[in-house]
Amino acid sequence: SVLMLHPENTMPFCARNYTITDKEGNRLFEKIGNYQTRNKVRLPMPVITTELKFQFEQSSPNVPVSLFEIRCYADGGEQSV
Question: Is the confidence at residue 25, as pLDDT, over 90?
Answer without folding.
Answer: yes
